[in-house]
From TrEMBL:
Compartments, record wording: Endomembrane system; Golgi apparatus membrane; Membrane
Family assignment from sequence similarity: Belongs to the methyltransferase superfamily.
Gene Ontology biological-process entries: methylation
A molecular function (GO) term: methyltransferase activity
InterPro entries, per database record: Put_SAM_MeTrfase, SAM-dependent_MTases_sf
Name assigned to this protein: Methyltransferase
Membrane topology, record value: Single-pass type II membrane protein; Single-pass membrane protein
Main location: membrane
Enzyme Commission number(s): 2.1.1.-
Chain segments annotated as transmembrane: 16-35
Highest taxon, organism lineage: Eukaryota
A single GO cellular-component term on record: Golgi membrane
Length: 605
């Protein structure tokens, strides 16, 4: 036995060799496991097959499963709670525009149609179901003209608006002929008339606002001319109008001109439009026209078709005396003059005004100093009361024509009106998001195709994600959270993109199942300690279509918490490393919402 005994030096050598061998084996099996799960081995995909055409592939240097964990636990083994479906009666639930809650508010100035969100103890903590028979919407441009009946099963507009060519019911689909109350012969012919006065074809007009949009045929047909329209209408007796717009693949939100300012920055839109929108423009001292003036860019156009224009012909149809109808138009003319708008066209049912490109001198000559708003920031509008005052005009921005406008440095940055954002910051942001979007497209080859038509960016920054993704096959709703340190929505509009302010502690002003893809950059870090992660995720689930996709960028710890929650929400998720490698703390979470609809068993339980 004495011969088998090792001296201390031999024992140390053997221990060292054992450690080296064990470490070598660990590294080998770690690399083998990562290779098998990375997509370069077994071809594991991040998305469900959608309509037999999804083919998502993974970058070789991106891994589904990172080696980070939740409190030391393997992120693959999660014990998340299962979130149950809501009852089918909530399939079209809009939390902040709930019909029952609305009835508790005054009808004066449309207060009851404004946002009234549920209290914390009234929030639903369940998954909003799709109606039985729900299918993926038709791809654009077919979706402009046809919507599956099962997706929005409401026929009332087919009867109420039958003679106006809004919508028709044929078999198992709704057909949209492109008509409207003031353009029963089609939006295209109507827009042609406007184009004889307004430069719609050369890129001068890029962003439009449609107030009281109906089913958004105006915005749908403006897309043929590369014009993006923010359409809004209340959730009222025409309850599905905004839902139809989004099913058609047209940007729209639930909204109303009431007592609260519109959720858009000043000088945002190149053109504003009202086609028999029934907004009482002449009332409240011209407050609604003043709000349009706030969001209308200097040199922009306002189109009014319908009452009270052509009052001499229609006053009896409107059940108004000649005197009253003429008085309404006269008051509108006076308010427009006070706002320094020039009427440039009136023929039959249409009148068009143009806001002066530089109205400083006009306001000074007409002694409007006392009518100017006293607010310090005309872009600070979230839940702020509308006022009967004129927003100071400021300097007229020199915008390039679209598409050059998309990449040109926005005037707010050039003129120093965007604190903390330099021209170099803007250029770097563009480069960064081109890189990120290229990564997304390599991960999911359908990004940029008509598969993802309606896209939302929950924390849009300078709008560079949308700019990098720019395609006629899709559009992006750029959301600037109200809790953001920098208010960048004005810059986004100067780039020729559209968006809105929003607080993600509340529900968004849209119907369920209205977006194909949701992108969020550091959204959950932004809202840490402000509201519940689960509430934000449930709202994302509400507005995301079945088989829709989600792309989140955030720190690994935040995304692991998110992933733990969504695993109980009927989402399939994969966590990927940053493009620059596994040592970058920022990660990417890719998710796909499963297809499911309401079932009798769930409704009875």
């Amino acid at each position: 036995m004495r011969g088998s005994r090792m001296n201390p030096g031999d024992r140390r050598t053997r221990s060292t060799m054992t450690i080296i061998i064990v470490m070598g084996l660990c590294c080998f099996f770690y690399i083998l496991g990562a290779w098998q799960k990375s997509g370069t081995g077994r071809g594991d995909s991040i998305a469900l097959r959608v309509n037999q055409e999804t083919d998502c592939t993974i970058l070789p240097n991106l891994h589904f499963e990172t080696h980070h964990s939740i409190s030391g636990a393997n992120p693959l083994i999660m014990t998340s709670k299962v979130i149950e479906p809501c009852h089918i009666r909530y399939s079209d639930y809009t939390p902040c525009q709930d019909q029952n809650r609305a009835m508790a508010f005054p009808r004066e100035n449309m207060t009851y149609r404004e946002r009234h969100c549920p209290a914390e103890n009234e929030k639903l903590h369940c998954l909003i179901p799709a109606p039985k028979g729900y299918v993926t919407p038709f791809p654009w441009p077919k979706s402009r003209d046809y919507v599956p009946y099962a997706n929005a099963p409401y026929k009332s507009l087919t009867v109420e608006k039958a003679v106006q060519n809004w919508i028709q019911f044929e078999g198992d689909v709704f057909k949209f002929p492109g008509g409207g109350t003031m353009f029963p012969n089609g939006a295209s012919a109507y827009i042609d008339e406007l184009a004889s006065v307004i430069p719609l074809a050369d890129g001068t007009i890029r962003t439009a606002l449609d107030t009281g949009c109906g089913v958004a045929s105006f915005g749908a047909y403006l897309m043929d001319r590369n014009i993006l329209t923010m359409s809004f209408a209340p959730r009222d007796s025409h309850e599905a109008q905004v839902q139809f717009a989004l099913e058609r693949g047209v940007p729209a939100v639930i909204g109303v001109l009431g007592t609260i300012k519109l959720p858009y920055p000043s000088k945002s839109f190149d053109m504003a439009h009202c086609s028999r929108c029934l907004i009482p423009w002449e009332s409240n001292g011209g407050m609604y026209m003043m709000e349009v003036d706030r969001v209308l860019r200097p040199g922009g156009y306002w189109i009014l078709s319908g009452p009270p224009i052509n009052w001499n012909k229609y006053h009896q149809t409107w059940k108004k005396s000649k005197l009253d109808a003429e008085g309404d138009q006269h008051r509108i003319e006076n308010i427009a003059e006070m706002l320094c708008w020039d009427k440039i066209y009136e023929k039959e049912d249409i009148a068009i005004w143009q806001k002066k490109a530089n109205s400083h001198l006009c306001h000074q000559m007409n002694g409007h100093a006392s009518k100017m708003c006293k607010v310090q920031d005309a872009d600070d509008v979230w839940y702020k009361k509308m006022e009967s005052c004129i927003t100071p005009p400021g300097e007229a921005a020199q915008l390039k024509k679209f598409p050059e406008r998309l990449s040109a440095i926005p005037p707010r940055i050039l003129d120093g009106h965007a604190p903390g954002i330099t021209e170099e910051d803007y250029e770097e942001d563009n480069k960064l998001w081109k890189k990120h979007v290229n990564t997304y497209k390599r991960v999911n080859k359908l990004l940029g195709s008509s598969r993802y038509r309606n896209i939302m960016d929950m924390n849009a920054g300078l709008g560079s994600f949308a700019a990098a993704l720019d395609s006629p096959k899709s559009w992006v709703m750029n959301v600037v959270p109200t809790v953001s340190e920098r208010n960048t929505l004005g810059i986004i509009y100067e780039r020729g993109l559209i968006g809105t302010y929003h607080d993600w502690c509340e529900a968004f002003s849209t119907y369920p199942r209205t977006y194909d893809l949701i992108h969020g950059y550091h959204v959950f870090s932004l809202y840490q300690n402000k509201c519940n992660v689960e509430d934000i995720l449930l709202e994302m689930d509400r507005i995301l279509r079945p088989e829709g996709a989600v792309i989140l960028r955030d720190s690994v710890d935040v995304l692991n918490k998110v992933r733990n929650t969504v695993s109980g929400m009927r989402w399939k998720s994969k966590l990927l490393d940053h493009e620059d490698g596994p040592h970058v703390p920022e990660k990417i979470l890719i998710s796909v919402k499963e297809y499911w609809v309401a079932s009798e068993e769930e409704n009875n339980s």
